[in-house]
Amino acid sequence: MKRTLLVLALATFGTALPAAANTVNIKLTGVGGANQGGVYVAPYYLSIDGHKSVPVICDDFDHEVTIGETWKATIHTFADLNGTRFGAGDKQEYEEAAWLYTKYMSDPSQAGNINFALWALFTPSTKSSSGYTSGAATWYTDSIDWYDAGAKGVDFADFEIITPTNLKSKNSPQEYLYYCPDAPSSPTPEPSSLFLLGTGLIGLGAFARKQLGL
């Protein structure tokens, strides 16, 4: 009987909880102030669905946003890169970008060089920019060497990718990488889902009472 109740409980939670609805409202609230070659570099600060701003890094050199601008975006994990700016075909580049992000976090003084190296991974024309210095070139090469050596030491589950929904528009905002090991995306269940969960638990309780003869 206990096994039957456990199976029913798992079935109830499995059907009542919603799939991750990952469309969010984004606002660029500020930049860190550092620039290289006349271009602002990490960190950028985004508010997600009106919450406290979080630091992110940009991987998208060909687009731009202004402070205070808002847009809709989807949240992607490294387990599913479909729908991101550069797509699953650039999985290696996203992983190298994550490694570069960890290096930026450990040495913020290299923000300019690291951000330009990261941009160059996805947009090779970035290398012609004045901001792409010899230091950026070194980080670019180091990221490729790290990947070729086995891509060790980075937990990709700690990263999310914030991709604008209007990717095909010429005015599309930028895409950002977000390091969030302690705050994975976990959307609040919608009222209908909560209702399903509640009715499922009520049914489970009635079943338990019947089986126990209460």
Reconstruct the topology from this structure.
Elements: H1 2-16, E1 23-31, E2 35-36, E3 39-40, E4 44-48, E5 54-58, E6 70-77, H2 91-106, H3 111-122, H4 134-148, E7 159-164, E8 176-179, H5 191-212
Antiparallel strand pairs: 1-4, 1-6, 2-3, 4-5, 5-8, 6-7, 7-8
How would you describe this protein?
With 214 residues, the protein is α+β, with helices and mostly antiparallel strands. The protein has 2 domains: 1-18 and 194-214; 21-188, no CATH class. The protein has 5 helices and 8 strands. The protein has helices at residues 2-16, 91-106, 111-122, 134-148, 191-212; strands at 23-31, 35-36, 39-40, 44-48, 54-58, 70-77, 159-164, 176-179. The chain has a 6-stranded antiparallel barrel. A two-stranded antiparallel ribbon has the order 2-3. Helix 2 crosses helix 4 (134-148). It is globular, with a radius of gyration of 22 Å. The relative contact order is 0.19. The model is unreliable at 1-21 and 184-212 (pLDDT under 50).
Strand order of the largest sheet: 1-4-5-8-7-6
Q: Biggest sheet, in brief?
A: 6 strands, antiparallel, barrel
Q: Which residues form runs of ≥5 with pLDDT under 50?
A: 1-21, 184-212
- Content of β-strand: 15-25%
Helix content: 25-40%
C-alpha end-to-end distance? 15 Å
How many distinct helices? 5
- Briefly note the structural class of the backbone: alpha+beta
Average pLDDT score: 83
Query: How many individual β-strands?
Result: 8
- The secondary-structure element order is HEEEEEEHHHEEH
Which of globular, elongated, flat, extended, rod-shaped describes the shape?
Answer: globular
Number of domains: 2
- Rg (C-alpha, Å): 22 Å
